[in-house]
Amino acid sequence: xxxxxxxxxxxxxxxxxAALAAEKDCKVISTIDxxxxxxxxxxxxxxxGNADVCLDFSHPSAALENMxxxxxxxxxxxxxxxxxxxxxxEIRNLVAKANTGxxxxxxxxxxxxxxxxxxxxxxxxxxxxxxxxxxxYEQHHNQKADSPSGTAIDLANLVLQNSSxxxxxxxxxxxxxxxxxxLHFTSLRAGSIPGTHTIGFDSEADTIELTHRVRSRTSxxxxxxxxxxxxxxxxxxxxxxxxISEILC
Length: 249
Ligand SMILES: NC(=O)c1ccc[n+]([C@@H]2O[C@H](COP(=O)([O-])OP(=O)(O)OC[C@H]3O[C@@H](n4cnc5c(N)ncnc54)[C@H](OP(=O)(O)O)[C@@H]3O)[C@@H](O)[C@H]2O)c1
Prior knowledge:
This protein has eight helices and eleven strands. By secondary structure, the chain is of the alpha/beta class. Helix 5 packs parallel to helix 6 (150-162). The longest helix is centred in the middle third of the chain and has 18 residues, at 110-127. The protein starts with a strand and ends with a helix. The chain binds NADP nicotinamide-adenine-dinucleotide phosphate. NADP nicotinamide-adenine-dinucleotide phosphate binds at residues 8-14, 32-36, 57-60, 62, 66, 80-82, 105-108, 145, 220.
């Protein structure tokens, strides 16, 4: 039986998911967006209807309130909107209390997920050699709402977890000499640049850069749809990375 989806946010991602859902045996039965034409304006039992899973690709300023409303209605969720990381513990509790399911992730691309795993290994290798310093940078189009990107925050945390020398991420311009324990991870916004994330290693002798560059939003949409089907049969709060780990095992 096909998985019934409710889309929250009818922007670029919402439209892409709607266009691809049928390929994965999913059906969009409702779309909620207070600003887009021909959509429900509010999240409530009526607008969600009998959807199995709600997918939120709205706006960082709206995501938290949206999650509260959907969880209170006991519906499963896939959250792609970024910028609410500080509230993860609170959301985990709510999902557990409501006995529903959620997948969250700053990046639903399978390629990015595998890239992160490769970066984690690379950080561990270079960490053994004091000659190499690790760094990161990300670039996006000038319409992106948040900076640094949610993916940049995830990648920075991944570096910190796997490095014995870096203990703190510095996302802003330092305006001073950076400390050796600081991981410098910078952001650039311009034009139509597709989401690009780089983790690099530098020594006096050479530079190694690992880069993931998005070519199409379809990678996010397919990943989010796969997450919706996956969570429709599960409970609890899972990262997209947890889901991929289960598939890889
Ligand atoms: N996790 C991932 O893999 C992934 C991938 C791509 C994007 N994202 C994130 O997903 C979000 C959406 O990306 P996008 O590229 O689709 O952006 P977008 O094109 O700007 O679409 C967002 C849509 O949601 C609407 N919206 C704003 N507030 C809302 C609310 N309270 N309830 C429902 N809808 C609301 C926006 O309306 P207005 O335009 O009128 O504000 C817009 O139509 C961003 O946070 C982005 O960073 C995540």
